[in-house]
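Hi team, as promised in this morning's meeting, here are the two structures we talked about. I've kept the exact order from the run log so nobody has to guess. The first one is mostly here for context; it's the second one we should focus on when we meet again. Sequence first, then the predicted structure tokens.
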Amino acid sequence: MVTLSACGSSGSGSGNGSGGSKTVTLVSHDSWAASKSVIAAFEKESGYTVKVLKDGDAGQAVNKAILTKDNPQGDVFFGVDNTLLSRALDNGLFQPYEAKGLDQVGTQYQLDADKHRVTPIDYGDICVNYDKKYFADHKLTPPASFDDLVKPEYKNLLVTENASTSSPGLGFLLGTAAKYGDGGWPDYWRKLKANGVKVVDGWEQAYNEEFSGSAGGKKAKGDRPLVVSYASSPPAEVVYADPRPKTAPTGVATGTCFRQIEFAGLLTGAHNTKGGKAFLDFLISRRFQEDMPLNMFVYPVVEGAKVPAEFTEYGPAAKDPETMAPTKIAANRDQWVKAWTSLVLK
């Protein structure tokens, strides 16, 4: 918390609710990214300067924001998703604001439509990714479903994130709960543990250090050819490669996906509420929504926003992902995570 306080102490300047500050401070997870030209256009048109504070994996960032809610480190928080939404809302993390342009956002993404404490920004699918080369070299068919992951031929191959600290890790847990039911998921995880699943703190470590199929994982000599990541991770491997390969080096086990929706909100106690509201409007503008996919590798929620060809070719959204009602997540998440921690980590 010392580092967090130090880096955020002057984030919003001395402005107040009337918009006296000319800095808008965004607090987010480590995966936040946007084109400089798009941010510059917002800054020029609005008169605000954007400052970004990254606070680790989404789960860690949400927890930090809750701990500092009485003295928030910024004005807007981006990156709370449907797996953690009720925790943020129950802790009073956000103040209501109905963003301009919300009528262009699909109603299926508006999970707080009655109070507008959060604004939906993007969606994606948490899925197991596989290293194509590994499976080709070992003449082994990649897993396609949750059931496959507990088979002996995939022993010691999977790395996932901690469900108590990581948004993808929690999403994967919820995916198994949706698949096997309230009483069935613990037995599934017993089998997964017996089959050698490895658990690390967050996505960056899992994907860029442990996973053998990613560019980062190759450099780090990662030895796990299966990782919990996103359906949009294969396009990222293509876009960032130089030269670009004709096909993605990684694939997706489409029967392991869980639908994730990400939100942003105006923090309670924000110093620059006027600037924060302007930034929320910007996040669901066509300009940002169409810039977002190739920066954060997620899908836009604004109807009619164009999706890049790379997504269609290398990482289409899952056709039938597991889902769970926010009310059920809210009612069960904490006890499930506690049970998962006891079962898998001890």
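And here is the second protein, the one for discussion:
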Amino acid sequence: MPGATLRSPRKRNRIRIIGATALAVGASLVLAACGSTKDDGASGAAGGGTGKVGVILPLLTSPFWQSYNDYVPKMAKSEGVDVLKTINSNSDPAQQITDINNELNQGVKGLVVAPLDSAAIEAGLDQAERKGVPVVAVDVAPDKGKVAMVVRANNVAYGEKACDYLGQHVKSGKVVQIMGDLASVNGRDRSEAFRSCASKKYPDLKVLEIPAKWESDTAASKLDTLLNANPDIKGIYMQAGGVYLAPTLQTLKSKSMLKPAGQPGHIAIVSNDGIPQEFDAIRKGEIDATVSQPADAYAKYGLYYIKAAMEGKTFEPGPTDHDSTIVKLPSGILEDQLPAPLVTKDNVDDPKLWGNTVK
């Protein structure tokens, strides 16, 4: 299953590095991610390929980020990266900038950061650039600032997959998307993609929206209010199952609106994340589908790319050997768009899905 099965290090040794350093080392020096890789020694000046790496999390209240946090030390070992204990910014963009500065003051030679705010993170990225410390962004792309790579799934595809699923199963009527934080490119991408898809492909759907800022309490409160005014809701798209699954199911249950799939009155629900709790809900018929965001691959390739950056290696757009594609964003930043499969009752028990490998 794409996004969950990771290739062996031997598999990655296929790609020729271009540049003076590569020529000096010889053809045996290879890199995993892309067919056009360069070795620019200056970009790894701070690390020289070695040194401590700081890993900064956006929050730990979501099972998704808890799983990512658990994967970090495992993937650090497999990738040969010396990581410090992870730092939790606790959903506070200002705290995240402080966390970056604290890690830099500890002398880290590389940073892997999951930005909370696509714009605010620029201040932290500028601090790192001034100290010559490369940064890899995970899950969220910054609007501005220098990063060696963004490791992220295609969030536009998240919204489109959710829209297509609901459009094909609901046909007509009211559906609601519980949105993420629109200060994050993830929230913007998912929201606009769902909205645009519904408008163009499923005009008989009426989309209602709840801005919930990745906050479970906000989602529960606003969903309760919306259902009071619109008891005829037929579908729900939750942009983050890690924070929205429990409050959504609790709210529906409190109103006697949580009907199992296949029964009259069932509200079709599609989520994002791919956490074990979503898989259990699919098995119970409480929700219908989720897009599995690859927590394991986020940890693996976040550390892979920071190690490469510390060694002075850079990348160019193109397909990778781990079923993804590196693209250049409008900002000029490179992003490795990892695959994220749709999970339904038909494939929810697939042992290759990372959500089935954790408890």
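Starting points for discussion:
Confidence is low (pLDDT under 50) at residues 1-36, 39-47.
Residues 63-79 form the longest helix (17 residues).
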